[in-house]
Amino acid sequence: MRLELEGITKRFGSLVANDGVDLTVEPGEIHCLLGENGAGKSTLMNVLFGMLRADSGDIKVDGKVVDFADPGDAIAQGIGMVHQHFMLVPVFSVAENVVLGFEPTKAFGFLDRQAARADIRRLSSEFGLEVDPDAIVEELPVGLQQRVEILKALLRDVSLLILDEPTAVLTPQEIEGLFTIMRSLAASGRSILFITHKLKEVLAVADQITVMRQGRVVGTTTPAESDEEALATMMVGRNVDLVVHKTPAKPGAGVLELEGLTLADERGLTTVDHVDLTVRAGEVVALAGVQGNGQNELAEALLGLRTIRAGAIRLGGHDITGDTPRQALRAGIAYIPEDRQLEGLVLSLSIADNLVLDMHNIEPYARHGARNLTVVRESGETKLHEFDIRATSVEVPVGTLSGGNQQKVVVARELSRPVKLLVAAQPTRGLDVGSIEYVHRRIVEERDRGVAVLLVSSELDEILALADQVAVMFRGRIVGVVPPSVGREQIGLMMAGADRSGGGGQEPAAATGTESR
Amino acid sequence: MTATPAEVPAGAEPAAKQPSGPAPRWSSALHRMTEANVAITTLLAVVVGLVFGAILIIVTSSNTLHAWGNIGSNPGHAFGASLTTVGHAYGDLFTGSIFSPSSLRHAISTGHGWTTLFTPISETLVSATPLMLAGMGVALGFSTGVFNIGGQGQLIAGALAATYVGFGVHLPLPLHVPLVILAGAAGGAVAGFIPGFLKARTGAHEVIVTIMLNYIFLDLLNYLLTTKPLQQPGQSNSISQTIPSSATLPHLFGSGLRVNAGLIVALVVAAGASWFMRRSTLGFTFRVIGSNPTAGRTAGMDAKRATILVLTISGALVGLAGMSTLAGTDFFLSSGYGGGTGFNAITVALLGRNKPIGVVLGSLLFASLVTGGRYMQAATGIPIDLTTVIQAVIVFCVATPALIREIFRLREAGTGKILLFTKGWAG
What we know:
Shape of chain B: globular
Strand content of chain B: under 5%
Oligomer: heterodimer
Largest sheet of chain B: none
Number of strands of chain B: 0
Number of domains of chain A: 3
CATH superfamily of the largest domain in chain A: P-loop containing nucleotide triphosphate hydrolases
């Protein structure tokens, strides 16, 4: 399909989310749409997929102007979309999920499972999308669930497939597998619109690259004509420094020591399983792993937010197992939570109030149960400058700030206490490149000051840039602790469950495809 | 789409200067405008309520209906009659709740009849007092994300405790009255502590528990009223002993006007609540837990403790409401004590947007509709239920600000989103 978007403009109140966007996708092309969060990529895709209506502009399919009132119209024109969050029925089999919506039937309306299986096998072998049609979806790894989503689209005869941030949940090997599939789809004449903010992936897979910033297309290029620096500059609008500058770590004594730490969730399922781990002063230990392998639970447990089933947590030699969050904070843990809007901030309260959320009741911010609002405001103003938070005043609600500035408020608050251990869970998720730079620099500064840093991240680039040691988690266990110099290939294999020797362990699911667990 | 237009990608220069000068003032002006917007929406809700009431008066009065029947022959009369009828009714509402111009003329010309002049406003203040106290208690819970529907039970608990201390203890007035006040607060606090404790410990939803406790306290009162020592000796009716005059809240302006020290208690509580929510560390904790309990926990706050405390304090304030009617105007308990005050407190809290000053104004409005409505019913025969309808329409409009904005084509203020009152029901 040849898709043309011409002058698409979409406004939300006074905000122009898309401002005269032009975009052309040729048949058989892998077209990357690159941009930071908030650049307008999702709005554009929602317009294209019929979920939003453009205020002005045309969508043309093979030269003809089309009008999409809802996703059904888009699907009828051969446009398919794989969303960031999958739309699958977890308890159904792969075949059932794929045919859901237009099930092949036999006489009297009985499901023709045989036909469904056959369709899947045919498409699977054609595009290298191996997946067992009878596997139950919830038992499949995320990478395979994504294949099911792609199969769903293929069965509906897509000629243009939109992939919205498809790599966020995948291991490096699964990402490679996805790229192979994308290439074979393109070779069959189908067009692919690949939405991402990851520069490496764009350069690896794209035929054509369109970069968006603040609702506008700022340029188009190809991997051959571009490199990471150039793309980042286009995306951000100024020169950016992609390399985290840091000297080799000079680790001191162990600050955080975990001994056989075991956690269970509300249903009693083990989420963290006998973890032993030491983080020393002046080093960054990264917990790597595909999302949902226990990293975030472990981080929360350090702060006393999770019930500990067994094992011990020691901070600077003191046992803090079972401490309340307040005790853990006062003991010297700084905590940058995974979801700043849910766990880190009270969006309706002012910046100044959010900056003292943890210390609102102690001197000098309060005395005898009465808050000293003057001190709160003045200290807020100091931190506004110190941490470069861009806001008109400390009195504005923190919810009015951009994501990067919200994160700076969290960082400012957490680093304002005496810190022995910094726990940073996905500290740059959803941030713009400038803010990512800032947060990374702050983390390295804390490390150099002698703080022990535990970084939880699902971005391998971030881990490789910051970590002095990488502890890889898989299904609640630490499969190994390696220096980042072993490379993304090796760490990727460990993220899929292979033990540290690499070859001998469980094979990663993405490589074999049909393996169900 | 979150990048604000003023947002510049963070530079490597940490010393980047803040916009200084007019910017902070500009933002606080915006904040005030937002606040003003909330006040205007509430005011317009009152206007809608009154207009709706006017329409009801017109379509239910035989006088105006007759005039409208003859609209073909005399259209002017239809409008004139409608205006006159509505004008009389709303004039009576004013006369009955604030003051009557004729009494004012009489008092000025003769120098007597001041008591008559001030009786309507005194009655309004008397009915407003328990609404203020109970409304403040409910509002405190709302702004902490806790739904205290147990006003009725807590009010009875407060009144019961005040009654026992009233007739059971013998002290001079300066000691007895404070003790009665404290007893009222303590009784309500106990009734509020129960759902708080159950919610924190077992996760029991406070809406269910407080509603059920209403029945328990209602029937506990009925039982106690038929047994010693509460029941009035020599009575077969379900009424309690009368508290001695040493335990009653003193009148503020002489014995002719019923307005009493309960109003002072209510205003002090309102001022205290305002300070508490804005300036105290505990109030700050309540606000944080109310808007985002997860962030509160991550910052080391104890959400369970806050839940217990807020329901206890909320109950104490509602208990004071029960005390204020007992020791201020009634002096004894009877079956079904408190009437609908516990529930009206919820509407007053909604109307006042959980702000102490809003609750005070909301109580005054509701109380004047009640006292004015009584007068209107007596004077014009329009049933007092009309004022209940007006109240309901006002609260309806306040609870659906989008509707008011639609009716009056108001623009939505950026950050002035009205707090969603349904928040927390899932918890």
